[in-house]
Each structure stands twice: as C-alpha cells, then as structure tokens.
Amino acid sequence: MKGTNSNDHREKEHIVENKELNIWEALIPVIILMGMLAYNIFYADGAWFGEYSNQIILLLGGLVAAIVGFFNKTSIRRMFEEVRENLNSVLLPIMILLLVGALAGTWLVSGVIPAMVYYGLQVLNPIVFLPATIVIAAVISIATGSSWTTSATVGIALIGIGTALGIHSGMIAGAVISGAYFGDKMSPLSDTTNLAPAMAGTDLFTHIKYMSFTTGPTILITLVIFTIISLNIETTGSADVSGLLGTIEDTFAITPYLFIVPIVVIALILLKTKPLVALGTGVGLAAIFALIFQVEVLEALSERPVSAVINAIFTDTQITTDNDKLNELFSSGGMAGMLWTIYLICCAMVFGGIMDGIGALSKITKALLSIASSVFGLFASTVVSCLGLNIIASDQYLAIVIPGKMFKKAYQDKNLAPENLSRTLEDSGTVTSVLIPWNTCGAYQSSVLGVGVSEYFIYAIFNYLSPLTTLIFAAFKIKIRTIKQVKSDIQQ
Q1: DSSP 395
Q2: Whether the Cβ atoms of residue 88 and residue 4 lie closer than 8 Å to each other
Q3: In terms of Cα–Cα distance, which of 323, 334, 292 is closest to 110?
Q4: Residue 290: which pLDDT band, with cuts at 50, 70 and 90?
Q5: pLDDT digit string (tens) for 443-459?
Q6: 320 DSSP 8-state letter
Q7: Distance separating alpha carbons of residues 96 and 276, to the nearest angstrom
Q8: Where are the domains of the chain?
Q9: Is residue 118 a contact partner of residue 249, using CB atoms and an 8 Å limit?
Q10: pTM for this predicted structure
Q11: Smallest Cα–Cα separation from 426: which of 403, 449, 392, 450?
C-alpha cells in the first residue's frame, strides 16, 4: 500500500543512538509508565485522569522520557522530529479507523448487523450448541468488530439458553469468548485489528491475511474440542430464541439482500483493493441500503432519513427495542466512537517518538536482542511482553501499543516483515487480556456474562491457544515472512 505506511517510508525509518544513555536510564520512563498505569488500575479504578487516563499517562511517560533525554544531551528538536515522524506514519491508519466507525454505524441502520444476528441465532441446535455458539459469536463479532458488544448482547442470550439446556455456564462463556475474540481479531472493524498493524508498520489487510495462518488452525482446534464436549454432555429443554427473533423482525426489515453489502466489501478485500476504497464502498452501499430497506428505522431516528444516515456515519446512533439484550447491540458511535482509540494511538506515538529520540528504544531493543538472539527468542520475548503488560497494565491496548513500538526495529534487524510483529501482538496481546481477572477485558466479560474468569478460563480455548500457536509457528519457521520476500512480491 502506498502512502505514509508504504514500504519506502518504512525503509527510511531509524532508531536514534545515544551513547550518553545507559540501559537503566532508558528503562526509567518505562518503569514510571508502568507504575502510573498500575496505580490508575488498582487505586484509582481506571479513572485517575478521567476517561482518557491511559492517554494522559502515556503523555506523562513521554514527559519523563524527555527529561531523561535532556540530561543525556538530547535536543528538544530531535525529540519533536521523531514525534512528528511517528504521527505522520499513522495518518493512514487513523483515516481507516474513522471509516471503520462510519461502516459500523451504516451497517447498523441499514440492517446488515441485525440480519446477521437474526439468521445466526436460527442455526442453534441443542446437540451442537457449543460449536454453534462459537460460530454465532464469531459472525457477530466480525460484523461489529467488538468482542465486548458481542458478549453483552448475543453472549448474554446464549448464556441464558445454554443454562436452560443444563450446560455448564463456564463452558458457554468459554465458547462465547472464543468466538467473540476470533471475530475481534479478524474483523477490519475492530480497533485492535487496526491498532496492531499501525504499531508494527504494516497495512490492515496484509495483517489480517497473515494473521489467518495462525488464527485459522487455532479456531479449528477450538471448534473440534467444543464439538467433542457438546456431543458428550446431556442437554434438556429447548433453545427458544423466538423472542429475540421477533424483536429483530419488528424493528428491522430483514432480508437476505442485505448480505450484498458485506459480500461486496469482502470481495474488494480479496481483490486487494485499497482499504480506504473497500471500506468507503461499504459505507456508501450500506447508506443506500438503509434508505431502501430501513425507512421506518431512519424516520424513528430523525425526521429526515438522510440526516439519520449522516448521523450514523459521524455520531452516536441508538435504536431502541423492547428487548434490553438487543439495545446495546443496536447502538454505534460512528466516527466519533473511534476517537478514544485514535487519541490513544497519537499519545502512544508521542511517547514512542520521544523514547526513540532520546535513544532509549535503541538501548532497550539491543538489550532484548542480546537476550533473544534467535528468531524464536524474539517471538517469545514479544509474547511474554504482551502477556506481562496485560497483567501489569491491565489493558489490551497498551499490551499492543508498547511492545509494538519497542520491538519494531528488532524485527527489522532480523529481516522479518512487520506483519510478523503485528500478528504476534494480536495473538498474544488482544486475546489473552480476557484471561486476567483484573484486566479491563477480564473484569468486563465476567461481569457481563455473569461467569467468573476462573470458571471460563479453561474453556476459553481459543484465547490461550493463540499465543502457543504463534510460538509453534516461530519455532518451526512456518509462515515467517521476511523483508526480502516482501520486496520480491512488490517487484512481481
């Protein structure tokens, strides 16, 4: 992909050397950053500085790094230059994130997401309830780009249905979470799926394609295990989803024609269309379909249907039904809903830019490379770092952002294409967050589903198999793409 994230741009990137700085001084900003994050989570309930605590803490970490740099003979001009370069490198991902928000809003008001929920719920069968739960959660999560929304809506319904069938709630929750996080990883609508390639320096669809090599086998193994479990447990009662189906039918005009929109977007992606074009087409088509199929829904949102579509693109949209379980699913933040993640990316670029400018990244990456001298050691170090940040920082975004910036140069030095890093960040950062009880994801999922982390942990098979799969691929050098291979593909 050409632009700020092109290969030409990446080749020009560098990490500043600073002989005046030692490894302990380089670690000072990181240690203070981790300390502030820990205080924010454990003592300030995640709201030390309000809604944007993580962003402010990253900026404060950047300030500490600047002070360290000042005392080690680094000019302010050098720091600002590196910050500017970092911000330039994420302009395209930010534009994609805004389109992702618009896509989510238009897919809601057009009925695309409700149609996926409607038809997905109908495949339920008590005999294969658990694998069906994975598939349903995966489809909804791919459509919405959010594991949280999936769990808070369809997940709650599936917990209720499965419990009525006499299935252990931990099994159901594990199936819901496995499917939801599979969809979260693979959906171009997901903020973490956009965040990981932005940190590593690759593009969205290359990241998704490369991630499928490890994610595909992992979800297949998960499905096989849950199928075996499902066939060996006794169920009672019936899977009655008529209430949910009735509410969806009463609210939206449901028709298979709505699937034209996601099919077109998927086709464009497979044809390697530029992300902005593919996503923009998805927004435009969904807007047209909304005006054709969902006039009543649009009129309920605004006196002018066109205004309702525009609002769905840019701002919050809430479609209220008589079923509380569906109300959260039938809401979207539009482009405005992506601002939190965009601010996080920008603040991370400031922190990373200053760390780069003072020479701290060079010192840290060299220290890491001295420990992890092999390719496998580099992958293992990345996995451990992501897991550690999920435990210490209690936030999956930071478990992607910080290792992504820290390890980027190390992967380049090993002649590894950036998609190796972006894939490893998601395989170990995104999915393991839900396995930590005090992590924001673990706390959220256990609260929403009403099932403790300790109850669903062993059944969240996809989540703990993902980092193991990426390490197996690294150990046996399976689908480990090099920078030389990338250049060869471009020349062809």
Answers
A1: -
A2: yes
A3: 292
A4: very high
A5: 788 888 889 888 999 99
A6: -
A7: 6
A8: 21-73, 93-338
A9: yes
A10: 0.72
A11: 403
